[in-house]
Amino acid sequence: MKKFLLSFFAFTALLSFSLTEDLKAAENDTIPTENQKVTKSRLTIGGYGEAVYTRTFYSDNMFRYSHPDRYKDAPGYGRVDLPHVVIFLGYDFGHGWTMGSEIEFEHGGNEVAVEIEAEETGEFEHEIERGGEVALEQFWIQKSFSKALNIRMGHIIVPVGQTNNAHLPTEFFTCYRPEGEFTIMPNTWHETGVSIWGRIGKWRYEAVVVPGLNSNMFNNANWVKNGSASAYEFKVANKLAGALRIDNYSIKNLHIGVSGYIGNSFNNDLVTNEADKYKDVKGTVLIGTAEFDYKANGIIIRGNFDYGHLNDADIISAYNKNQNHQSFSPYPRSLVGEEAVAIGGEVGYDIFHGMKRTGERQLFVFGRYDYYDSYIHYASAITMYDWTERHVMTLGLNYYPIKQVVIKAEFSERFLKAQYNNEPMVSVGVAYSGFFVR
């Protein structure tokens, strides 16, 4: 581990040297004039992307929590990842009608090939060359009547929580999305539905109606996160759910937001169980969140609090454990907690703030803390999963050579209860977000 920590600090020293050279070059930057004419296109093209290298100093073996002593001195592993690469396409049809879409490639997308095996009997072989996902994260048509009233219909973001509302890699400091919210709820949470939103003075509101989550997909490690998934070519919508978000910008440099979600989740699948003993089971999911972010004088402070409650968690846990055990079943067959919580905060300071001739360049030194628990058990639970309760500390740097590009480096460690092994890691990444045509 010492060797990799030395490599991490060597990287930061090299980065500091590079920044000094960039600052010298900034004196010759060309600054656009205020009278420069900008032509707005009806077509919008943009996106964002992330590439990350991580070196862990703990085992990721599936039994590391059930038999922690076996993996106390595990060497860890290294990995490279493309967490999200997204292409955004939008168009303004005129008369208040617009379209927006996002195509997302997670973890490099998915590569599958069929080959003829020449060394054996010439048989066809189906090979997965890369694991990953390709998804349509957004596709909506919007009618805008005024700033105060817009109706959006199609595949939309469910704006519950800080990260779902601001999920671009330039909107948080860590190499990966903040761990607490990312663990306990869908992220980025996207569903097909209807949204009504608008701005009134210093306030912004958004109300959405979408299909409910599927309790068959809940588990102990991620609470209701996977409940938005569907193994079918469509999303089952036996149950509908609602979400509401309100944001306020009344105080200069400060944004405050709250959001909530409510929806039933039991029997929201293609195959349902109509037995009398389940007739009153609803599996109502309730989520409430509060957040803030403050930006001024080279300082950025962000914080979030998320709480979730699942009604009938005991019945759903028993039901899920006894689901179809065929190997191709998509269900995790796991217990699920009655409650989940995620609390997080980060503070960053721009070392370049106040310096002359830096242009858009920024260098943030930041620290972040997360506490979350994805399995707060119900009263009658016999099985406890103490490893789901975690504290995470992160220290790192964010360098912005230009506004749209960020280079990230960090050291983080998950602190679990005493009977388990802590999970330290070092990550380095590069990311961008912006528009090419707008």
* Separation, N- and C-terminal Cα atoms: 46 Å
The biggest sheet amounts to: 16 strands, antiparallel, barrel
Low-confidence stretches: 7-38
How many helix segments?
4
What coarse outline follows from CA principal-axis ratios? globular
Mean pLDDT: 88
| Cα radius of gyration in angstroms | 24 Å
Which properties best describe this structure?
4 helices; mainly beta; two-stranded antiparallel sheet; globular; single chain; 438 residues
Give a quick rundown of the structure.
This protein has 438 residues and is mainly beta.
Q: Explain this structure to me?
A:
By secondary structure, this protein is mostly beta strands. Helix content is 10%, strand content 47%. It contains four helices and 19 strands. Strands 1-3-4-7-8-9-10-11-12-13-14-15-16-17-18-19 form a 16-stranded antiparallel β-barrel. The protein has a two-stranded antiparallel ribbon with strand order 5-6. Strand 11 and strand 12 (254-264) form a beta hairpin. The longest helix is centred in the first third of the chain and has 25 residues, at 2-26. The two termini are 46 Å apart. The relative contact order is 0.15.
